[in-house]
């Protein structure tokens, strides 16, 4: 299914725009990278760039379909930002994927001699700015990258961009919650969204 077909077949948002906004998913940074211009809706009076939630929603639907087709053990989720540790760990538990939170050891994807070495078919990156090492290694071994990208991110190595606030605690929880729900729905693990037994709070880091 092409991206265009996914867009046309999924006109309704996964959750209401109000729920997206409450979680701050659309709140970008005060710095924008040229790569992210087309995902920016407008600039706020305080200088923060606001991301287009329609594009965020569409990207989550596409990512959900893509990742549902891949065996969970072949999916690797990475995050160096502390607020992402809980969402990524919970996401990995729910869909059965691998995850690395905190420091990514150089050579994990490229050095067969390392005890930490692992092979994967797709990588989900929480922040391209913080997770540069894994992105370089994924590019070297030809592994596609799905990334949560904020207004300030470069997207050179990213194959699928999910425009979102990748620094906020609630935003990260919501994005990973929605993505896990989409994957389970597309796999057929649940019949309806109501069957998804987890809440956003289950994915949110505690202060």
Tell me how many strands there are: 7
Structural domains: how many: 1
Q: Tell me the strand order in the biggest sheet.
A: 4-3-5-6-7
How far apart lie the N and C ends?
41 Å
> Class in CATH?
Alpha Beta
CATH topology: Rossmann fold
Helix content: 25-40%
Q: Nearest-angstrom radius of gyration?
A: 16 Å
Structural class, by secondary structure, is: alpha/beta
Summarize the helix and strand pattern as letters. Answer: HHEEHEHEEHEEHH
Number of helices: 7
Per CATH, the architecture is 3-Layer(aba) Sandwich
Q: Which consecutive residue ranges, at least 5 long each, have pLDDT under 50?
A: 1-8
Strand-residue proportion: 5-15%
Question: Can you tell me the CATH superfamily?
Answer: Glucose-6-phosphate isomerase like protein, domain 1
Mean pLDDT: 91
Describe this structure in words.
- This protein is of the alpha/beta class and 207 residues long.
- It has one domain: 3-Layer(aba) Sandwich (Rossmann fold).
- The protein has helices at 3-9, 17-22, 53-68, 85-95, 132-141, 169-187, 200-203; strands at residues 40-43, 49-51, 75-79, 98-101, 122-125, 145-149, 160-163.
- The strands form two sheets. A five-stranded parallel sheet has the order 4-3-5-6-7, sandwiched between helices.
- β1 (40-43) and β2 form a beta hairpin.
- α3 (53-68) crosses α6 and α4 (85-95) runs parallel beside α6.
- The longest helix has 19 residues, at 169-187.
Chain-wise SSE layout:
Layout: H1 3-9, H2 17-22, E1 40-43, E2 49-51, H3 53-68, E3 75-79, H4 85-95, E4 98-101, E5 122-125, H5 132-141, E6 145-149, E7 160-163, H6 169-187, H7 200-203
Parallel strand pairs: 3-4, 3-5, 5-6, 6-7
Antiparallel strand pairs: 1-2
Helix pairs in contact: 3-6, 4-6
